[in-house]
Write a structure and sequence with these properties.
By secondary structure, this protein is an alpha+beta fold. The chain is built from 3 helices and 5 strands. The strands form 2 sheets. The protein has a 3-stranded antiparallel β-sheet, with helices on one face. The two termini are 14 Å apart.
């Protein structure tokens, strides 16, 4: 069973989000969600919500297909952070000049799946 979730236009830079995402890549989804609860970075809250959403999506898929579901078996198989559009703002400076302020956004996608057993077909 594989399920995906994504968040778009998240108001944080991709660089800051990647620091948090790299901590949970390849982990068990439930354990990753629990470990993000104690991370000091602000984006950890959004990543945790995204992982919880992917777990809920997997649960809905399993119920629709009438399959057995155990969220403790789910593993984060793929999680990516991409840059979103940048909002450009102007800050007035001295002597009639202006500085540009770049407000960056990011898109985060996560895929959770149950690992395939080697003996199963």
């Amino acid at each position: 069973m594989e399920a995906k979730a994504q968040t778009r236009y998240l108001r944080t830079t991709a660089q800051k989000a990647r620091r948090v995402v790299n901590l949970v890549r390849g982990q068990n989804a439930v354990e990753a969600s629990a470990s993000l609860k104690f991370q000091p970075q602000a984006v950890a809250i959004d990543v945790r919500k995204l992982i919880d959403s992917a777990i809920a999506n997997a649960r809905q898929k399993a119920e629709a297909a009438s399959e057995r579901f155990d969220e403790r078996e789910l593993v984060i198989t793929a999680i990516t952070v991409d840059e979103g559009p940048t909002m450009k703002r102007i800050r007035p400076r001295a002597q009639g000049r202006a500085n540009q302020i770049l407000k960056r956004t990011s898109h985060i996608s996560v895929t959770v799946a149950t690992p395939v057993k080697e003996g199963a077909k």
